[in-house]
Specification:
single chain, alpha/beta, Aminopeptidase, 3 domains, 6-stranded mixed β-sheet, 16 helices, 16 strands, 39% helix, 16% strand, globular
Length: 592
């Protein structure tokens, strides 16, 4: 199988060259720096990286795009009546600022469940029945990030207070605009200020409000401005097909000193840059390594700018992007639900098994992280890598978080040097190196788009079951089936090319075909807005053009909503069928 391709000798040389001296020194340096996007301390971290790259002779460029970033400065919250009492609170990036002026209103607790996983952290669902919140201050459970904040702030409340799951208050961002906003970004920030409190304080407020009316007063200060932020890109040219490249990337900015999120990731990229440069004669394709600012304070502003500015290079030439966030954290001994698009899942699982001896499970990437290249149709894999076992998480009483290997210090002041584990970091760095090396050097890109089409088929069948007789998805299912049959022939053809050099004309043609398949199939599976716009930072269901089919069991036949869903699906199916047929046509022409 081409997805299991490896060069054991080259892999052994490169992986054994990875050690802890340089990355651990970087982590120790970054552990002293609060790396707000575009800040002086982030610039110190940038200078640290560029100093090392210059010392080793690795070519790089630093870009300074002007992006919209936001810093939460402070929040105050106090009970006015029945008793005066201050409560510790924070606000979120991109929350509207009261500029320090107090807003006073009656507190209304609303029942809402805490999130159960990373999808829930970035989710958007509100309870079905809500009290009248107009003119009130809503108290709800959840982290309050992105779509949560936007949805709750649109209820008519004059403020929303989110109760976090534990004693910590986690920093976060409230906009759903993916990257810096454009003219289509209306409605992507909350309409009213958003605050967050700890679980003990939230429970106390809820209990007090259950006994009698409670009036609270709050104020916030949030600094939101367009400012230059750094994007550092190093490049190690390939020796045969240098125009084809893998994009390995991580975010440079942080909440507080952010050791687990993401100094360990930044150090991983630095060490892989050193080692791959040292062994550059063995790389047949180009490795591009990028450190982004604007992840934490600009909703992935740096990576989104890069996707926009270099789209015409990325679309034809990028094999895949590999995201590096929170590797090497304490207690993270398992590889569970590792993010990978379906076509890259076998590559990721095989590399983890070969390097660590552990079995991994993979999962569909959430609409999070710096997956800013999905709309371009570029395969993505990895994001968060290792994590702590579920049994250990439950034993510690931890709740789900979005990084740090499952450590609940994520996005808090406590994400310090103690979170990094040198032994686990060394293991994770070698996993990243193996995945990247195989993408760079495999004669045939180690991606299997049959898995992608099977995933699409699975969701089409689920949508058809939900739609029943209300809508017919057979055209999409037939197009997917035809493509899958032709892909079987395609991969039989690629099996004959595994011994050829990467610059062989037929190998180049086949690999261009695989990248072309991604440009059609990734958007079918993940994208609503088209190739050169960015979908918002909120969960997007599989095959989003057809996901509305799940509404039919809950709709009155012939109702207005029923007809609107049918119309939406008719248009969406046209897009899906067209994309699947285009992919089929391209493969069939290559095989002719």
């Amino acid at each position: 199988m081409h997805t299991a391709w490896r060069d054991p000798e080259a892999e052994q040389r490169i992986l054994s060259a990875i050690d802890l001296e340089e990355p651990w020194a970087a982590i120790e340096a970054f552990a002293q720096l609060v790396r707000l996007s575009g800040s002086p301390e982030e610039r110190e971290a940038l200078d640290y990286l560029t100093d090392r790259l210059e010392r080793w002779g690795i070519p790089y460029r630093v870009f300074w795009p002007a992006c919209l970033v936001s810093y939460p400065v402070y929040a105050t919250l106090r009970i006015v009546a029945p008793e005066a009492k201050p409560i510790r609170a924070k606000t979120l990036a991109f929350s509207p600022s009261t500029e320090g002026a107090e807003v006073v209103g009656e507190l209304v607790p609303v029942t809402a469940e805490q999130v159960a996983g990373i999808e829930g952290i970035f989710g958007s669902a509100l309870p079905g029945q809500l009290p009248d919140l107009r003119g009130k201050v809503a108290l709800v459970d959840g982290f309050g990030f992105a779509a949560q904040a936007v949805r709750w702030a649109a209820t008519g409340a004059i403020g929303v207070i989110f109760v976090h799951p534990g004693e910590a208050i986690h920093e976060g961002i409230a906009t759903t605009s993916w990257g810096s906003p454009d003219l289509d970004a209306a409605g992507t920030v909350p309409a009213v200020p958003v605050l967050a409190v700890s679980r003990p304080d939230g429970d106390a407020l809820r209990e007090l409000a259950a006994r009698q009316p409670v009036t609270v007063a709050f104020s916030t200060a949030v600094e939101t401005v367009w400012r230059p932020i750094p994007v550092l890109v190093a490049e190690i040219p390939g020796t045969q097909a240098a125009d084809e490249f893998v994009l390995l990337h991580a975010h440079l900015d942080s909440w507080h000193v952010g050791v687990g999120d993401n100094a360990t990731g930044d150090a991983t990229l630095l060490e892989l840059a050193r080692v791959f440069w040292q062994h550059r004669e063995q790389l047949v394709r180009t490795l591009r390594i990028a450190w982004w600012s604007g992840h934490s304070h600009g909703r992935y502003a740096g990576s989104t700018w890069y996707a926009d500015a270099f789209a015409q290079d990325l679309v034809p030439n990028c094999i895949a992007h590999v995201n590096c966030d929170s590797p090497g954290c304490r207690w993270a001994t398992e590889y569970r639900d590792v993010a990978a698009m379906a076509e890259a899942a076998a590559l990721v699982r095989t590399a983890i098994r070969d390097v660590t001896g552990l079995e991994a499970t993979t999962a569909r990437p959430p609409r999070a992280g710096d997956y800013s290249f999905t709309n371009l149709g570029i395969t993505g894999c990895l994001m968060l890598l290792s994590t702590m076992p579920e049994e250990l998480r439950r034993a510690k009483g931890y709740y789900p978080v979005g990084g740090c290997g499952g450590n609940i210090v994520w996005h808090t002041e406590e994400d310090t040097l103690e979170v990094a584990d040198p032994d686990l970091l060394l293991r994770d760095m070698r996993v990243y190196a193996a995945v990247v090396l195989r993408l760079l050097n495999a004669p045939i890109h180690p991606l299997d788009f049959r898995a992608t089409v099977r995933e699409i088929e699975e969701h089409l069948h689920r949508y058809q079951e939900a739609a029943g007789e209300a809508f017919d998805l057979r055209p999409a299912l037939q197009a997917a089936g035809n493509l899958l049959t032709t892909l079987d022939r395609f991969y039989e053809h690629t099996a004959l090319l595994l011994d050829r050099p990467v610059d062989d004309p037929e190998v180049r043609r086949v690999n261009a075909m695989q990248r072309g398949l991604a440009r059609h199939l990734v958007p079918v599976n993940y994208v609503r807005r088209g190739r050169f716009r960015h979908d918002p930072a909120e969960p997007i269901p599989p095959i989003p053009e057809l996901a509305a089919a799940v509404e039919f069991p809950h709709l009155e036949p012939e109702s207005d909503r029923w007809h609107r869903v049918r119309t939406h699906l008719l248009r969406g199916q046209n897009q899906v069928v067209w994309s699947l047929r285009q992919a089929h046509r391209r493969v069939a022409e290559l095989l002719a």
